[in-house]
């Protein structure tokens, strides 16, 4: 029996037993659905369901590999012609996926090899193969508690630093979900936001990321060879930047500050000068109505470089095209992710704080649905598999050709990822 | 909410026109024009003509602008005339002038009335009789406290500011808190100006055949037909001042305008229609045309159709840009300024990219200049059966 048929049956069993626990998204009948089957990697789109029973029956019958629904609402969600779908508006979707940004743990669990010469390396693939200079690589990306935590911190930052204080939303306005693989989704459901165009949404994305922020417009200026900086009294990004600077200067060691400033592209003398003057600078920015910024060797350009780095630190690492696109489909909560076998888990903000997808103690929130003490025998078909910790147990690292016996949920993960086969 | 009659006379584009003047608002254009023009409405005609003449002369204000019930008639007849004239250049000129006049009225308006206007437009606005402080600017010994009487919900702010692409209007550069942007009166008035400007354009769904039918009926009314004729005669006299007839030739004499990307085509079409350009559009088009080797005079002439054209200022700016040789914005920057027109123009090269034979993969255009080069290369290949141009 091929792995895909086996996995499809497993998914089918899940949908049969658990369909009553799958949430019904708001305005279900106005949403377009999309599915990727096990049989071939194509997206079946433009499907609408009049009620949730129809949808659950579809899941049980077809047990797709991936299940999506639209952020958009349509009067005719099943119409395949976009012009005749009757667009009614779109929720604001935010996708935070560790695949889209660098995390320190990637060197521990991600690796690449050149398709041409076989040269291997850890972390993200380089632009060119250092050995043969060719451009094609196989990139094996993996997940760990550390990188999933970074994604979680990003979504918490987004909610607590932007959506609630700046955009005025409350928890009832958004839904949060673990994506079932490498990140989190957040959906803002608000009638007025639904009516915004892609152009309008790009403005929101810029606000959430700090992209296109103008330090000069916020208040940074040079006058008579003096630098007049930002003020904490000013509402919006200006306040955020000063708070971040205060936090950095108060809670980071000189070594941590040095590392951060190197990351921002500042040179050694400038960094030395900054660290030397940091207490005076902290005093200046902490006081109200004080913005004459004096640090030896700091020009307007230096300040811009430093503050641009701070802006990047404050901004959320979101997948921008997802939020701008008004016809995007996102994973349906409660369904299974075909690359892991994990459940797309809806979460409240309170649940999010303590949520740990790979080692979740609360059974109701556990995305690892196929957990079992029963074991299964597999043969590794990928070059290598890094170590992974799930349910407090370590598995791996493994190499190609290795025969292993692992618990059922680990077997499902490896089979879904296509890195092993049953024996 | 009840709004004063005077406000509707002052600002006849307010939705309350329908409630306060149902006898006017409920009439169809035929009835409305027949009724008005059956009484030899000299004053209305003169006021309307003054609007058209002022707009054709690039004026930014109307001398002796009056606010009375006639103002409602003037506004509605101007809209009907623009519908019949069906000329984007004229519509743009009137829209620019009328909205500028509106701005100068709004800025003088009592704050409480400005709030009433916003509420009538169904905008989510918070109004503070005692202005609230939201920031300060300190430079040297000068301190300016920033106060505002208004906060506007960010969704309304974005919808109204979508065509105003100045950097300082971007949401990220504005004071946003609890869903509302602190906004000063002049900026709020500027947003309303833009709202009014948009009122003068045909919507995409408007049926062109109905324009002809209406025209046929209305032009049977003698005085109205005469007014229509007088406007057209004035336009005939003035339009050649604006019509640019650029032979799109670069310094080497070749015409490469057919290879321009949609972002450039859109700006050129706006200029042709006499629409105002925002700052970034002006910079981009000048830098781009200089980069593709267009003559300075050609570029200056191009701007001559714009409502605020000043030859001396334009010449200075274009020559300065030529001296500095700035690189035009790349695609990602254009996207962030909402100047990318790939989707609107359904441009295949922009949307789908091209197959790089060298890398054997699909690549995307990342710079408008590369778009031109790519098209030039493709055209050359077509006309020279595959031989690449000499480098």
Topology, please?
The complex is a heterodimer of chains A (423) and B (391).
Chain A: H1 3-18, E1 33-36, E2 44-47, H2 52-62, E3 66-70, E4 72-74, E5 87-90, E6 92-97, H3 106-109, E7 111-114, E8 120-122, E9 137-140, H4 145-163, E10 174-178, E11 183-188, H5 191-194, H6 198-209, H7 215-218, E12 221-223, E13 226-228, H8 237-251, H9 254-263, H10 268-286, E14 292-293, H11 300-314, H12 320-324, E15 329-331, E16 345-347, H13 349-354, E17 375-380, E18 384-385, E19 388-390, E20 393-395, E21 398-399, E22 403-407, H14 408-417, E23 420-422
Antiparallel strand pairs in A: 1-2, 1-3, 3-15, 4-5, 6-11, 7-8, 7-9, 10-11, 10-16, 12-13, 13-14, 17-22, 17-23, 18-21, 19-20
Helix pairs in contact in A: 1-2, 8-10, 8-11, 9-10
Chain B: H1 5-10, H2 17-20, H3 22-25, H4 29-37, H5 42-56, H6 69-85, H7 88-106, H8 111-120, E1 125-139, E2 142-153, H9 154-161, E3 176-177, E4 180-183, H10 185-198, H11 208-218, H12 222-242, H13 262-272, H14 279-291, H15 296-302, H16 311-324, H17 331-336, H18 348-352, E5 354-356, E6 361-363, H19 368-383
Antiparallel strand pairs in B: 1-2, 2-4, 3-4, 5-6
Helix pairs in contact in B: 5-6, 5-7, 5-12, 7-10, 15-16
- Main sheet: strand order of chain A: 2-1-3-15
Largest sheet of chain B: 4 strands, antiparallel
> Alpha-carbon distance between the termini of chain A?
10 Å
- As a percent range, the share of strand residues of chain B is 5-15%
Shape of chain A: globular
What number is the mean pLDDT of chain A? 94
Q: Biggest interface and its residues per chain?
A: A-B, 40 and 35 residues
The helix tally of chain B amounts to 19
Secondary-structure element order of chain B, as H and E?
Answer: HHHHHHHHEEHEEHHHHHHHHHEEH
Instruction: Describe the global form of chain B.
Output: globular
Number of helices of chain A: 14
How many DSSP-defined strands of chain A? 23
The chain-level structural class of chain A is alpha+beta
How many runs of DSSP E, i.e. beta strands of chain B?
Answer: 6
